[in-house]
Amino acid sequence: MAFRPACADPKLLKETIRGEWDLNGNINFDLRIQIQSLFFFLILGLDLDCGSYYSDYGANAVIQGKVRESKIDKALRSLYFVLLRPGFFDGSPKFDSLGKDEICSENHINFAIQAAREGIFLLKNDNDTLPLDSHQIKTIAVVWLHANATDVMIGNHAGVPCRITTPIYAFKQHGKVIYENGCADVACKNDSLIFPAVQAASKADATIVGVGLDLSAEAESLDRVDLLLPGYQTQLINQIATSSKGPVTLVIMSAGGVDISFARNHPNITSIIWAGYPGEEGGQGIADVFGAYNPATTKRSINIKLNKFQHCRHINYIDGALEPSCATHNVEFSVEVTNVGKRDGSEVVMIYWNPPSGIVDAHIKQLVAFKKVCIQAGRSTKVNFNLNACKSLGIIDYKGYNHLASGGHNILVGDNILSFPLRITYEISH
Ligand SMILES: *[C@@H]1O[C@H](CO)[C@@H](O)[C@H](O)[C@H]1NC(C)=O
Ligand SMILES: *[C@@H]1O[C@H](CO)[C@@H](O)[C@H](O)[C@H]1NC(C)=O
Ligand SMILES: *[C@@H]1O[C@H](CO)[C@@H](O)[C@H](O)[C@H]1NC(C)=O
Ligand SMILES: *[C@@H]1O[C@H](CO)[C@@H](O)[C@H](O)[C@H]1NC(C)=O
């Protein structure tokens, strides 16, 4: 059987999306489709490309008899329909009332700060180093190539920012800042900037080391070949950790994962923050984490205990009846989360799943559910999960079919804090 890409599959486009799902709108596709095949796709039911091929070549294709005008009309109808729905052609009060002062209003900037804060994760905080104690910490060494950078925090595929609050600007709210680059760029192929950074760290009351990636190291069409921090970044961190006067906090800016297990186990690196690419107010969001704002954690200084996992049902399936029957089989459990810290905070409870072993090409582990909960200091809360067996525990094969495998599955809470087995068996009916 020949495989078709999704954008050339009439069964998917016509029967499934427009038929079964009853889509009343348009289907678009991404860039870089070969021009020769473009009108083939139009005929199949793709209404718009996100570049300018249709508008550049559509009229000519009709004149040359390659596409019927009725096909273009059909695609246009879908597009106009989507514009009609929110009132695009009849003066929508919702859009007309929006003016210039809606752009970059104080509300929006505060929202950007909130988004940055909430996207930040605290991965380690030994000795309660964060928040920084403002009575003891007067000078802060900020060793961070991107501490004064502008667009790195924005990542890509973003709009035009209102303004950018850099980390260096925001850290000045916490004390006197000594600023060093540490590396000349993310590749950090040269260790010549490490020494001045170490010197700054040996003088300051606290040190913040920013490391990670940017679009020169990870981007569309730019894959990394390993998970390590590039170049001398690891040496930079280790040398600072050995010689800094005060506690060292590591801030990681990246989208893809980086292996920082060496820092996690390092006694002198008391705190680790993952900041992602936090956006235009990223500097403020990060600096707030050093002050009053308590970020979410995935760290297990809180106790998690599972109760009522007897709610997990033993699932039996009738041979061959995969999806229709398993839709009703759910795996229910709850996790009790206690905030053992002294400050109110939030926690993301993450649930992973290991498929049965021995299945060719099956993944090792998959995130199947997560919930963020806010918990007052000293309080506990029960977090309920209800996983649909097919949706959460299914393995998609190379043809796109979802299989619920029989055998021993494993549900994990967080980083193996708790795990419980789950056996799925099929009964053959004759
Ligand atoms: C940060 O960059 C701005 C210009 O983009 C510059 O005026 C300022 O001096 C820099 N700050 C530091 C601490 O280097
Ligand atoms: C390392 O970087 C410094 C400062 O950018 C430069 O002066 C030096 O020549 C570089 N060394 C090498 C070996 O590239
Ligand atoms: C931790 O810092 C102390 C100095 O404060 C240093 O003597 C020690 O070697 C450091 N530990 C490591 C593992 O770097
Ligand atoms: C953390 O606290 C312990 C106990 O007070 C202390 O021995 C240790 O040196 C502290 N670690 C750092 C890096 O400050």
UniProtKB/TrEMBL annotation:
PANTHER family: BETA-D-XYLOSIDASE 5-RELATED, SUGAR HYDROLASE-RELATED
Residue span(s) of domain Fibronectin type III-like: 347-417
InterPro entries listed in its UniProt record: BXL, Fn3-like, GH, Glyco_hydro_3_C, Glyco_hydro_3_C_sf, Glyco_hydro_3_N_sf, Ig-like_fold
MF GO annotations: hydrolase activity, acting on glycosyl bonds
Protein name: Fibronectin type III-like domain-containing protein
Keywords of this entry: Glycosidase, Hydrolase
Lineage: superkingdom: Eukaryota
Organism: Cinchona calisaya
Any Pfam family matching the protein: Fn3-like
